[in-house]
């Protein structure tokens, strides 16, 4: 194939990755270049609706497995000849009190949200470096830049991803491999409904805050959330530029988080706590 080849993780139906794939094959610029998309998720059956297009291949991929990541990357290169674009989109939510999260859940969140992206980057690097061409897109979050209560573990995994993206931007530049760090605001997806590890024991000192935790979990799916297709359109358009941006903040309420980055740190923490906790 002479066109671009994209490998995207986290393509479960209803998620951001699914929309990215859906838009990729409809995008005139990708289609004109004959782009082939390798859509992946833990379970192939979770990618309902993507198999109808001839330029989309569906593959099971667990980003927490070194062997699985390497297998899919090698399969993609063997079939398509190369990989031009990688979208590290796979992720899991981690709602709850940060200091009471079970350690196994902490490990799982970092393994999926942060280490998974690094695994994929490590696997595609030799192929992209040989061709001296490639683009790695890491999907982070606005809460990786601004601290919010009841979502601390997820925020920590995305903050680590943001820093990792910045370092990779420098370290991969000698091989003409670009890195885009995306910090989405509110985007309609199924991430809240897929929440795992969220529980509150009867002896917890935080029982009064349970409604706040639930509200925080669903806050990204409010009426101002950006439709996933619109989000995908923005990302794909930016990725196809001759010089893709290194950082983008896109989605509902994105402007609020951009503003907060410029305000005094103490005020931001106070504001965030008052916004997402009971007023008592």
Automatic annotation (TrEMBL):
GO terms for cellular component: endoplasmic reticulum. Coiled coil: none annotated. Belongs to the short-chain dehydrogenases/reductases (SDR) family. Keywords: NADP, Oxidoreductase. InterPro entries: NAD(P)-bd_dom_sf (IPR036291), Sc_DH/Rdtase_CS (IPR020904), SDR_fam (IPR002347). This is Oxidoreductase. GO terms for molecular function: oxidoreductase activity. CDD domains: 17beta-HSD-like_SDR_c (cd05374). Pfam families: adh_short. It comes from Mycena pura. The lineage of its organism: Eukaryota, Fungi, Dikarya, Basidiomycota, Agaricomycotina.
């Amino acid at each position: 194939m002479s066109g671009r080849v994209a490998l995207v993780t986290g393509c479960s139906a209803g998620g951001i990755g699914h929309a990215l794939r859906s838009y990729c094959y409809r995008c005139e610029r990708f289609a004109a270049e004959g782009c082939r998309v390798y859509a992946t998720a833990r379970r192939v059956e979770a990618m309902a609706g993507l198999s109808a297009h001839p330029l989309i291949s569906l593959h099971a991929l667990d980003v927490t497995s070194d062997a699985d990541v390497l297998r899919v990357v090698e399969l993609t290169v063997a079939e398509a000849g190369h990989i031009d674009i990688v979208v590290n989109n796979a992720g899991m939510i981690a709602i709850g009190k940060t200091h009471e999260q079970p350690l196994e859940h902490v490990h799982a969140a970092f393994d999926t949200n942060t280490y998974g992206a690094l695994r994929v980057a490590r696997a595609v690097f030799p192929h992209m470096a040989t061709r001296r061409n490639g683009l790695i897109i890491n999907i982070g979050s606005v809460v990786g830049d601004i601290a919010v209560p009841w979502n601390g573990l997820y925020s920590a995994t995305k903050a680590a991803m943001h820093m990792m993206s910045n370092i990779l931007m420098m370290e991969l530049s000698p091989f003409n491999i670009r890195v885009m760090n995306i910090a989405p605001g509110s985007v309609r997806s199924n991430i809240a409904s897929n929440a795992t590890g969220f529980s509150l024991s009867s002896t917890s000192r935080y029982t009064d805050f349970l409604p706040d935790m639930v509200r925080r979990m669903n806050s990204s799916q409010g009426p101002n959330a950006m439709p996933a297709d619109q989000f995908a359109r923005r990302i794909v358009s930016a990725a196809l530029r001759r010089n893709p941006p290194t950082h983008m903040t896109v989605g509902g309420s994105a402007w609020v988080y951009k503003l907060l980055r410029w305000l005094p740190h103490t005020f931001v923490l106070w504001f965030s706590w008052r916004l997402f906790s009971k007023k008592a």
